[in-house]
Amino acid sequence: MTVHNLGLGDSILNQFMAEVRDAGIQADRMRFRRNVERIGEIMAYEISKTLKYQTIDIQTPLAVQSVSVPSDSIVLATILRAGLPFHQGFLSYFDRADNAFISASRKYNDDHSAFTIEPGYLSSPSIAEKTLIIIDPMLATGSSLDLAYQLLLKRGEPARIHVACIIASRRGIDVASSLFPEDATTIWTGAIDPYLNDKAYIIPGLGDAGDLAYGEKI
């Protein structure tokens, strides 16, 4: 399995990564969502370089021009709710893609010392023999990613899988590597952070992406 840590190189991505982490800038929800979206756009562009392409002829007002365009059938699959602005970034570039949505939430015990991942909503087209891009901003324990993948497999076996996250923990990368077909999967992230705290939040991370984008939940 290939892991691309895009934050290791110098690019404008790192400006957006810095801003989504910055506690002061995070107070502006609209800017937080837009930065998440922009990170999605950059990752979509990087993933586009790995797709299959075909040549088509385009009629301009003056002549015919041959152009190489992607030929993959893409499904963008997003884990709600934090994934929505991230998803929009991908959809801005892969505007012809089909879309899948999965709800998965942490259910904590009374003292918040442990949690389980509870599935909810699934809306997905067939993913059989398609290029599946699973979009999840924070890859912490890998539990929600596992749940989402198992639900999506009810819609078929994809030909190729890309896992896209803004920040991953080292543990999350290890778990994801054990879940997916090694030869058919690539993980894309803006950063790999070293560990999780006792609440299973990525450290240093950025906090709760869903709350930062849409407000705290009860």
Count of domains: 1
Poorly predicted runs are none
Distance between the termini: 38 Å
pLDDT averaged residue by residue:
93
- Largest sheet properties: 7 strands, mixed
Helix content: 25-40%
Shape: globular
Count of strand segments:
14
Rg, alpha carbons? 18 Å
What structural class do you assign from the helix and strand content? alpha/beta
CATH architecture: 3-Layer(aba) Sandwich
Provide an overview of this structure.
32% of the residues lie in helices and 33% in strands. It has a seven-stranded mixed β-sheet with strand order 1-11-9-7-4-5-6, with helices on both faces. Strands 8-10-12 form a three-stranded parallel β-sheet. It has one domain: 3-Layer(aba) Sandwich (Rossmann fold). It is of the alpha/beta class and 218 residues long.
Characteristic terms for this protein:
about 220 residues, alpha/beta, Rossmann fold, seven-stranded mixed sheet, three-stranded parallel sheet, 7 helices, about 30% helix, about 35% strand, globular
How are the SSEs ordered, and which strands pair?
Elements: E1 2-5, H1 13-21, H2 23-26, H3 29-48, E2 53-59, E3 64-70, E4 74-80, H4 83-93, E5 98-108, E6 115-123, E7 131-135, E8 138-139, H5 143-152, E9 160-165, E10 167-169, H6 170-179, E11 185-189, E12 192-193, E13 195-196, E14 202-203, H7 209-214
Parallel strand pairs: 1-11, 4-5, 4-7, 7-9, 8-10, 9-11, 10-12
Antiparallel strand pairs: 2-3, 5-6, 13-14
Helix pairs in contact: 1-3, 3-4
